[in-house]
Amino acid sequence: MEWLGSLLLWLLDRVTGGALGAAGRAAFERIRAAWSALVAQRRRLDAAAEEAAPALEASARVIAALTEELARLTEENARLRTQLDIVTDEVRRLKRR
Questions:
Q1: What is the pTM of this model?
Q2: Of 10, 33, 68, 95, which sits most exposed with the smallest number of CB within 10 A?
Q3: Burial class for 3, CB neighbours closer than 10 Å (0-12, 13-18, 19+)
Q4: What percent of the residues of the chain are helix, what percent strand, and what percent coil, each to the nearest 5?
Q5: What's the rounded Cα separation, in Å, for the pair 35 and 78?
């Protein structure tokens, strides 16, 4: 990537017939340095994402398992509440006798 910036600077200088001047070259160098910093940051982010991927995948599996368990427990809770309602109704019926 660095060579591309140098090539662009050289071409720009040639196209403008050297009118780019020192200030223009300095501005272009700052832009090129900022671009290089962005490219380096992107590489670091890509590496961090690659490193974090296994942990994220493991977390996703844990969340999926917990979600399944929650669904199972919700169904079990509903079943037990129904049984409790039946027993409660039966106790009330027996008390009225």
A1: 0.54
A2: 95
A3: exposed
A4: 95, 0, 5
A5: 59
